[in-house]
UniProtKB/TrEMBL annotation:
InterPro entries: Pec_lyase (IPR002022), Pectin_lyas_fold (IPR012334), Pectin_lyase_fold/virulence (IPR011050), PEL (IPR045032). The keyword Lyase applies. SUPFAM superfamilies: Pectin lyase-like. GO terms for molecular function: pectate lyase activity. Transmembrane segments: none annotated. GO terms for cellular component: extracellular region. Signal peptide: none annotated. Keywords: Carbohydrate metabolism, Lyase, Polysaccharide degradation, Secreted, Signal. This is Pectate lyase A. It holds the Pfam family Pectate_lyase_4.
Length: 297
């Protein structure tokens, strides 16, 4: 076993956050494994009907947007989920994608875990190519152990103030144990209900913008060398945030106080939470493409 890697299996299900409730997120559990090393083979494997576990071997490059079908586990190019259900993306490194690294539209029960997402510094904007873009009523998602670096907009939840008819009551998303480094905006969050904990923000201009009635619970996280940490701006309606045990450094929170509490969270998570003084070291050492998969004959 390589030092610093976390043990996983290809059949792991999501066991933390919103993707663990209202229908299990198990990806392609129990299906045969397909190993791919070319863009064509990868595209064919992830768009095929039926459950599947797709293992990316080596580096795949190309100028394509790959569409992901339902009931897939992808272990490893921009990835596009539209109307997808029960999808797991793990241990992928995506750099300099044309458009979002991962785009999730009208999808449900998605787990993004231990990925490394980046671009050329200061590339991208909120409107076209966030590293992760969650839009059009997507729901019950978890993003864990992922690195977002060297980009303008890291995460966009909700693409427009005017899309409330489709988005209100959706966007239940958990973000945990993630590392935001050298980004202009970490998370822009409209309409939904978000649980954000154990995240480390380093050299971030704008941290979390809660907007259009979004309710966020932000816990046990650390900001260093960053600008505004949590705020509500640039939309026709404000959003809200409940802050618990966050180390702001020279940053601060100006977002209106929210109504979420730990009792509002509909899944157990005490077992998964690091103490705040452990967050920086733990996130830096563990986030990103750092899974080692056990395989049984």
């Amino acid at each position: 076993r390589q030092e610093g890697l976390e043990i996983a299996t290809y059949d792991d299900a999501c066991n933390i956050g919103y993707c663990s409730i209202n229908g299990a997120t198990i990806g392609g559990w129990g299906a045969n494994y397909t190993t791919v090393s070319t863009l064509v083979d990868f595209s064919n494997a992830v768009s095929a009907s039926g459950p599947g576990v797709i293992i990316v071997e080596g580096a795949i490059s190309g100028d394509a947007e790959v569409i992901i079908g339902s009931s897939k586990s992808i272990v490893g190019i921009g990835l596009y989920l539209n109307g997808s259900r029960n999808v797991i993306l793990r241990n992928l490194k995506i750099a300099n994608a044309q458009g979002p690294a991962v785009s999730i539209e009208n999808s449900r029960s998605i787990w993004v875990d231990h990925c490394d997402l980046s671009s050329q510094a200061n590339q991208g904007s909120e409107t076209d190519d966030s590293l992760i873009r969650i839009t059009r009523g997507s729901d019950y998602l978890t993003v864990t152990g992922t690195v977002f670096r060297d980009h303008s907009q890291a995460v966009l939840v909700g693409h427009a103030d005017s899309n409330g008819e489709e988005d209100k009551g959706k966007f239940h998303v958990t973000f945990a144990r993630n590392y935001f480094q050298n980004v202009e905006s970490a998370i822009s969050y409209r309409f939904g209900t978000g649980h954000i904990f154990n995240s480390y923000y380093e050299n971030v201009v704008d941290g979390i913008n809660t907007r259009m009635g979004a309710e966020l619970l932000i816990e046990s996280s650390v900001f260093e060398e960053s600008g505004r940490a949590v705020f509500s701006e640039n939309s026709t309606e404000i959003g809200y945030a409940t802050i618990r045990d966050v180390m702001f450094g020279d940053s601060s929170s100006s977002a209106p106080a929210g109504n979420m509490t730990s009792n509002s969270v509909p899944y157990p998570y005490d077992w998964y939470v690091w103490e705040t003084d452990q967050v920086r070291a733990s996130v830096v050492s563990q986030a990103g493409q750092k899974l080692e998969f056990l395989v049984w004959d």
